[in-house]
């Protein structure tokens, strides 16, 4: 009887253990499936965030490059824009301040020889981008004439171009450009700005040089631009070579 009872007890407990193990295994499988689904969702979320981050960086880079391009494209005309000589850009707050923006005159107005090295450039005062206000331009002497005492920002850009058939005596061509102040009351010429540049003579080359500075000028002062090689100065358009001043 004792052995029979023990066997019956084992036979009665075995189904319950199998059921318990089944439930445990099913719980483990459910947990594993839940973990897999959670990881899958996290992976998708990370991919979405990564995509948004890359798109944001790409948009920022494009916007920055566009802004830089716009800034670079406007640098060579900011002087004329600032002083209101481009159509529709007049700053009414500066209408009462002297300002002048001169562009290089056509080849019909040759430079005047100062000495064997330097020549005074002739300018255009009222065509294209050129214009003057409370200044005068002395055509006979190719000079911008100050009409009011004060501190002025004076600027100059010269663009040189060496053609293929230009005969250079040296491998590099030395170029000089200056802004000269002539004070009639002292009968004295002073170089306000001087630019030294050189270009290779191995073919067609082009180079622009720019200079600017603030100077105290009195009424009646003449401002002139002298260059060493006027035949190499680019006259192709108003953006290449210009000269001006404005009261600050």
TrEMBL record:
Coiled coil: none annotated. InterPro entries: TNF_dom, Tumour_necrosis_fac-like_dom. GO terms for biological process: immune response. Keywords: Cytokine, Membrane, Transmembrane, Transmembrane helix. GO terms for molecular function: cytokine activity; tumor necrosis factor receptor binding. Gene3D superfamilies: 2.60.120.40. The keyword Glycoprotein does not apply. The chain crosses the membrane at residues 45-63. One of its GO terms (cellular component) is membrane. This is THD domain-containing protein. It comes from Aldrovandia affinis.
